[in-house]
Amino acid sequence: MKRLVVLGGGESGVGTALLGKAKGYEVFVSDKGKIAQKYKEVLVSNDIDWEEEKHTEALILNANVVMKSPGIPEKVEIVQKLFQKEIPVISEIEFASAFTKANLIGITGSNGKTTTATWVDYVLENAGVNVALAGNIGDSFAKAVLKNQADFYVLELSSFQLDGIEDFKPHIAVLTNITPDHLDRYNYKYENYIASKFRIIKNQTENDYFIYDADNPTIAEWIEKFDVKAKKLPLTFQKKVKEGAYADEQNIVVRIVDNEFIMAREDLALKGEHNTKNAMAASTVAQLLKIKKQIIRESMGSFQGVEHRLERVLKINNVQYINDSKATNINATYYALESVSAETIWIVGGVDKGNKYEELLPLVNEKVKAVICLGVDNARIKEVFGNCVENFVETQSMKEAVQLAYQLGKSGDTVLLSPACASFDLFENYEDRGRQFKNNVRDL
């Protein structure tokens, strides 16, 4: 019996353990931290061996294959020892993909991947396709493969998940954009992170499709350096394309072979240039899969967006509160500030991943009247923005941040939570951060 060791007892780890057990592996789960109670209960009820707050080498280094959860860096000691012993260390995406013959749609990018993946899933659901959304969102891919024999999987993929693939191959790959992110995990080398994102096309053939933002300078520069075998379908605002999607002032146009889909930009459900690109990506996938144009049009016009991504929470005393907790990097916060037209009270901060805050200075100077820092270490934020605004305050709790924002807000203002940072210093994750924000706003 082959031995599968799972490092990390979270969503992807427990999903892999369940799938591994169902496929006849001897399974052991090891987590250096504490395993959440809900996951412990799943492991116990399925008779899967586990340990927490330690990695016992004798129980790990005898594995035939190891699934490493995406949050664990390769540089940790136990992973290095596995490499030395030449034991395969893969991601959950790689492990699960071996057990399904479904059509895979993989979506990655520094920003926009959750919105695009959710939008693609929404179109396919509306078309009556047997589809499941998984990966970096909702259920783990492994759990989805185990419980749901879908015909299509729409997978949101992080760079960490792509780092651990060998044979994984999506039939349709989407790369929404690339901007510096997670550089702390890539030795502060942008090119390492770029290469990681491009791994999504590593195993594609000429029978597959690669949809990408041709206006993104990094992608435009690097696409020539990779061996792209798949059929390329660019998304662009800059020129008309024979195949792919383009947009002019009025419309988005998607062309696949001789088939054309046209829709007015003003009819798209989500506003902002970046969401127009997300809509172009989602409708290109739908066109490839020959979804009826009427269904694509309705789905592009009625999609509600994603929780924690520019989510309008409440208007109180004519002050709009917006939850953009999912903005964990500079580029995402740039989009958020760009999309707001009112005077803004900006809640920012968390775990800095090597951020270049200076890129936000023009927008902050133009729109932001107060900065509320929400993080353990705010030195860099203070250094860059301390002199730009009349009010610069530091807080250690969401309740305090929201109450301060309420005091500073005047009729017509916007309060924007768009942290540009990871959340792990004060919160469990960005969802926890966003929900705390919403709950505190509702309590005002």
Automatic annotation (TrEMBL):
What keywords would UniProt list here? Answer: ATP-binding, Cell cycle, Cell division, Cell shape, Cell wall biogenesis/degradation, Cytoplasm, Ligase, Nucleotide-binding, Peptidoglycan synthesis
* UniProt-listed Enzyme Commission number(s): 6.3.2.9
Give start and end of each Mur ligase C-terminal domain.
308-421
- Pathway participation: Cell wall biogenesis; peptidoglycan biosynthesis
Any GO MF annotation of the entry = UDP-N-acetylmuramoylalanine-D-glutamate ligase activity
Which InterPro entries is this protein grouped with? Mur_ligase_C, Mur_ligase_cen, MurD
- List positions binding ATP: 109-115
Q: Name one Pfam family in it.
A: Mur_ligase_C
Question: Which cell locations does it reside in?
Answer: Cytoplasm
Domain Mur ligase central, chain residue ranges per copy: 107-286
Record's keyword annotation contains Cell wall biogenesis/degradation: yes
> Record keywords: Cytoplasm included?
yes
The organism sits in which domain of life?
Bacteria
Q: Which reaction does it catalyse?
A: UDP-N-acetyl-alpha-D-muramoyl-L-alanine + D-glutamate + ATP = UDP-N-acetyl-alpha-D-muramoyl-L-alanyl-D-glutamate + ADP + phosphate + H(+)
EC main group: ligase
Major location category of this protein = cytoplasm
Q: List the coiled-coil residues.
A: none
What protein family does this chain belong to?
Belongs to the MurCDEF family.
The protein's role, per its UniProt record: Cell wall formation. Catalyzes the addition of glutamate to the nucleotide precursor UDP-N-acetylmuramoyl-L-alanine (UMA).
Give the protein's recorded name: UDP-N-acetylmuramoylalanine--D-glutamate ligase
Q: Which organism is it from?
A: Mesonia aestuariivivens
Which gene name belongs to this protein? murD
